Amino acid sequence: MAHESRSRRAGVFDIRLIIALLIGVYGAVLTVLGIGFTTDEDIAKAANVNINLWAGLAMLVFAALFVLWTWLRPLRVPEDVQAAQQESAQ
Amino acid sequence: MTVLAQADLRLDANAIDYVLLAFYFLLVLGIGYLSRRQVSTSLDFFLSGRSLPAWVTGLAFIAANLGAIEVMGMSANGAQYGMPTAHYFWIGAVPAMLFLGIVMMPFYYGSKVRSVPEFMLRRFGKPAHLVNGISFALAQILIAGANLFLLASVVNLLLGWPIWVSIILAAVIVLSYTALGGLSAAIYNEVLQFFVIVAALLPLTIVGLYKVGGWEGLVDKISGGAGGAEQLDSWPGNQLTGFGSNFLSVLGLVFGLGFVLSFGYWTTNFVEVQRAMASKSMSAARRTPIIGAFPKIFIPFIVIIPGMIAGVTVTELAGENKEALLNGDAAPSGATFNDALLLLMRDLLPNGMLGIAIAGLLASFMAGMAANLSSFNTVFTYDIWQAYLRKDRPDDYYLRTGRVVTAAATVLAIGTAFIASTYSNLMDYLQQLFSFFNAPLFATFILGMFWKRMTPTAGWTGLVSGTAAAVMVFLLAETGVWDLPGQGASFVGAGAAFVVDIVVSVVVTYATQPKPEPQLVGLVYSLTPKENLRHSTTGEDAGWYRNPGLLAGIALVITIVLNFIF
């Protein structure tokens, strides 16, 4: 089991940050588009809703919440590995 | 779908949309690369080393099923049948998912098997194991092909690339991350995909509802159009089942879809169960399908409602076109219900949001296909290759085999993609497959888990005769001997498979020798010590919000309330 814990510690990454990165970038791009580059024609097409702006803002809020979650409850790798080993040993 | 592309209905994507799409693919491949460093044994590759938290496996559990088939197929169903489509979620998924978490997961996770067929091996021996392993592997390849075809048609519509080019390109992308990072890469990507799909569909639904004048506007338009107001209530769903009688329709939904098809699919399908097996503790494994049930309850609103909106607002689908399609004719516009979501996106979304919507669709395709591949390679490697062909090799041999098998499966799926392209409504095709393989499996499992007398011979004869019964019903319906339109044929097929399986299993059991009881500990309810089935309630598993029973109760109440509303 020793090699297993080594590999896990070396390879650990937090999926929550990747989700926040993707949605955050999407939100930022959409917000900028919605403020500056979405034409009246586009807005008329989308039933008079500036969907880029609103969806962008919502995604920014979502990304911020995920970052907050990651920050408040960080991954604790060593405990997890121990717990997994104890369990597989049983 | 090809007709539509030829009619030059390309989505008007620009540079910004492509940049957003490219960024998504960059992260997908990045996850594959990062996960690769976590893979050092075959258990890491096939079951993520049983180390993932419950919210990750729970969302992956739902995303693995939220493939393109689900998203495109269910919005097609929404456009065609309306609200009764929600049965696929509320009747056809949630109860079975809760049952899996509460009743069956302790056996799966507690017995430490690595796959569903391996459970069959330990409970019923080799014949049942082989039947299950081979039929599962076959089904995965067929379904992966359906996913591939759907992606190809999306890319065809978007970029105008030939179908075969996009099939191969898409296959290569999915292959690269599943072969590199194994189940972890597939699961992490499924979680990411889940959020992209929601980010794509939720804004589309909201804009669509504004367009038709809110829920009230949608009600008016649907009542006035082909199909009528019947499409606004989920019960009794005659159009969906194809039964004229309300009673038979409700019976078909509750027994056929709700009991046999859905329990068969959710509780024995290794694609789903594998995600729970990858979680880090018994408690997390039980919570996986229960956590997944919560998004599942609400997904109909962002999948079916856009389909319904498309059916009344999109020119190519509304009015006389919908009427023609409901009568089983081709629409004058050349569109089909499978195009509903794409056409709605084209009509409503500006550049920017359009790119994300396309990313969401491609994501859902990849979620489905990666799930098929990652479960196929596990079953093939552990249950066919290691069990029968190349025993007792070192672990890294099986790790390498897993990667090679993933590549081979991708090539086969490219072939089956062309089979999928011949069915007009992909959901019909999928339901047929599930009724062949899953319904008898559930019957055998539930008997085997609770009846210790059931013999190994009964295990495989039940499976084979159940599948044969489903195939018979399919052939009768297909050749017109038994007239069952809509999706009623698969409900009846599943019901027949279940009943035949039970009857054959019981009869054969009384004629053959059961397994000795000591070999069934951990596999059969009455022979398993109760503490083996319990989960810990301390540390990472403490707290009321981590209690599987309580979570399941909340999900059940929400589902029942929604059934009363719609």
TrEMBL record, chain A:
Keywords: Membrane, Transmembrane, Transmembrane helix. The keyword Transmembrane applies. It comes from the Bacteria. The chain crosses the membrane at residues 12-39, 51-72. This is Uncharacterized protein. It comes from Prauserella flavalba.
From TrEMBL, chain B:
Gene3D superfamilies: Sodium/glucose cotransporter. One of its GO terms (molecular function) is D-glucose:sodium symporter activity. Belongs to the sodium:solute symporter (SSF) (TC 2.A.21) family. Pfam families: SSF (PF00474). It comes from the Bacteria. CDD domains: SLC5sbd_u2. GO terms for cellular component: plasma membrane. Coiled coil: none annotated. The keyword Ribosomal protein does not apply. The chain crosses the membrane at residues 15-34, 54-76, 88-109, 130-155, 161-180, 192-210, 247-268, 289-309, 353-380, 401-423, 429-451, 458-477, 489-511, 544-565. It is found in: Membrane. Keywords: Membrane, Transmembrane, Transmembrane helix. It is a multi-pass membrane protein. This is Na+/galactose cotransporter.
